[in-house]
Amino acid sequence: ETTYDIEATETKWQRVWEDLQPFRADDDSPREKRYALTMFPYPSGDLHMGHAEVFALHDVVARYWWQRGYEVLNPMGFDSFGLPAENAAIRNDEHPDTYTRANIARSIESCQKYAASFDWSRTFNTSDPGYYRWTQWLFLKFYERGLAYRKNSPVNWCPNDQTVLANEQVVGGVCDRCGAEVTKKELTQWYFKITDYAQELLDGLDDLEKTWPDRVVTAQRNWIGRSEGAHVTFTLHTAVGERDIEVYTTRPDTLYGATFMVVAADAALAAEIVHPDRAQALEDYLVEVRKASDIDRLATDRPKTGVDLGITATNPVSGEEIPVWASDYVLADYGTGAIMAVPAHDQRDLDFARTMGLPVRRVIDTGDDNPEETGVATSGDGTYVNSGPLDGLADKASGIRSIIERLEADGRGSGAVNFRLRDWLLSRQRYWGAPIPIIHCPVDGEVPVPEDQLPVTLPMLTGADLKPKGTSPLGGATEWVNTTCPTCGGPATRDTDTMDTFVDSSWYMFRYCSPHDDTQAFDSAKVNMWMPSDLYVGGVEHAVLHLLYGRFFTKVLNDMGMVDFREPWAAQLNQGFVINKGKKMSKSLGNGVNLGDQLAAFGVDAVRLTLVFAGPPEDDIDWANMSPDGSLRFLQRAWRLSGDVASAPGVDVTAGDVALRRTTARTVHDAAELVETYRFNVLVARVMELVNATRKAIDSGVGPADPAVREATEAVAVLLSLVAPYTAEEMWERLGHEPTVARTGWPAVDEALLVEDTVTAVVQVKGKVKARLEVSPGISEADLEAAALADAGVQRAIDGATVRKVIVRAPKLVNVVV
Ligand code: ANZ
């Protein structure tokens, strides 16, 4: 008997688990609670290697918590709205729900075969009306609080998907879904006012830093992008008179070096202030500007372009008159959309000045060559020059303070903080999402759909009706669009946009706590009982989208009194990618690894073990370097132990072989710490060592009947239950126990077995080491002193002198002073 039948074993235990439901989270359990959350998948097909990895890693912790006696909430659902289902529906001339449901059914089956310890009694899909009803309800709550609003502005537009994108969804100037070049389009859109929470979202990171991966915390800090500086007011002299405009600068101390101003070419301001003679030039220029993404526009190495607006502005401290230009390197929706250009100390301003032939004036002497000649802006510390009262000063902080004081005194500016974070654009002109529950009435304007009329369900559209056309496909469902105004009863129309799927996933972690409640979004008492979630496992690609939005939602819900915490995820772990032959798996490279094939060849346990054993969870796993067959051989070796154990269950283990008992105790003890510090690969290595030690004991004099062999093999089964659930069950059964090993509890460790046999105590006389004694680690100070003084070498060193003092630090040191 060298192996077990993988397929039969998997089928057998799935049935048993189906009966026992070992992982149902009980709200009323008296046990301490733990919430193990892993990012829910988009149902775009069956599970793949990436899911296999993250579920295997996540399951180690969830299963460990159960074994440690916690009540564990480990739910799973599906983020099922979104473009892939809609695109598939257009291709196959069907409804997106058909595709979605088929994929979900397949994924659930695969998860169950994969033995992921999810509580399926709590599952839901975000595209269920029973779920999105509450997404809409939350939208209305945000709306009531002034946190959801509509505005007209240039937005990121994906010409391929024919929809707007949030800033977070534009990666390197292209759509993060389809890769098409993103352009700008002026549209009326819905926004969430996440900027109201910018400072708090930033401050919260100081605490999260201790339990969240560094790269996520850093990405959020950069994304929020807080900077300190000043608002400075310049007076514009336009063709129709004077007007004040504000700029935002981080370097108000360089104000004397501002030789021109630049306003964002696409900001409304530019068209308002342009001299009539220059209006056509601005318009022509704008056609070009609309083609570029924000990322391109901010790139330092991009050739500078712009238009002279034909007007001037007065510098508030020097009184100097400077020209005003429009360019695309200034962004319309950042700061105030206008800047003071200091070409000597800002590279983009310098490039612009050199391209347009504008003056450059150095105001900080850094000891470097003059930027006007070198074309290299200087930004280091130095001494102020050409700066009126600042001249001679060599301290940046005082320079900034002094200018701000002067501006404040003159009413021409003030210290200011700026954030890079923009409000969250949440409306999409696509079909497969939660409709925005607003009615537009010619009399009453925007009217929220009354709560008792939620959900606003999607009208039935299929195939070609879903084709993107720049406006929402919902607009074509005339019967659905035309409705009556809840306020005046007159004719009105529904908002035809749907919500970004990131709205759905911003609150799903709350819903798991009371997933079937059809009277409210979630039961606050239950949410407060389970949350914040103790561990969130998922991909680092969500560092600034989902993970920031979910934090924002939590803060708003806390302000609404619905939850009693302000951060949803206490700790986080990011897994690496599963790659193949050094490269990301992709269709074009043909290096994809099919999960189903791997499972068929090696079994679930061997694949799981391989993924967990591969290395630290954060590291990428190159499947080409893995050996799932090696994993399988190890699992069989472990399993064979359970057939060899020749003592009965419940045998008195204290009579067992001490050496093997020590190895078992040490392994179980360390395993806990390894799981808690996410060193799952080391955990597997330690179980391998324990298997080897047990095999050696059986084959040597100790023999299979020794109780220590049973104790060790049972420990192997329990530890393996975190990684290889099927093998663990098989072992447990062969060891004479009832299922399920997954809930049997963590093995007891006799602390005495963890104690080393002896430790070395050093004895010094007159500061020199005179003896080393092997003593028990628990030796008393008196016993250690006596043993030290009785040592012949120590006596020789004392040589009859009077012992004045003996300093004892048991069990390691004795210092004899004579
Ligand atoms: C003058 C100056 C002098 C600047 C200097 C920098 C260096 P952060 O740190 O990212 O907040 N700026 C302001 N609004 C802008 C806009 N809408 N588009 C493009 N650039 C803009 O950057 C703030 C700095 O970026 C501001 O400080 C401004 O340039 C520029 F030696 O003002 B500074």
From TrEMBL:
Residues 221-407 form the Leucyl-tRNA synthetase editing domain. GO terms for cellular component: cytosol. Transmembrane segments: none annotated. The keyword Magnesium does not apply. Residues 422-622 form the Aminoacyl-tRNA synthetase class Ia domain. Keywords: Aminoacyl-tRNA synthetase, ATP-binding, Cytoplasm, Ligase, Nucleotide-binding, Protein biosynthesis. Its EC number is 6.1.1.4. ATP binds at K587. Its main location: cytoplasm. SUPFAM superfamilies: Anticodon-binding domain of a subclass of class I aminoacyl-tRNA synthetases, Nucleotidylyl transferase, ValRS/IleRS/LeuRS editing domain. It holds the Pfam family tRNA-synt_1_2. A motif ('KMSKS' region) lies at residues 584-588. PANTHER family: LEUCINE--TRNA LIGASE, MITOCHONDRIAL (PTHR43740:SF2), LEUCYL-TRNA SYNTHETASE (PTHR43740). Belongs to the class-I aminoacyl-tRNA synthetase family. This is Leucine--tRNA ligase. The lineage of its organism: Bacteria, Bacillati, Actinomycetota, Actinomycetes, Propionibacteriales.
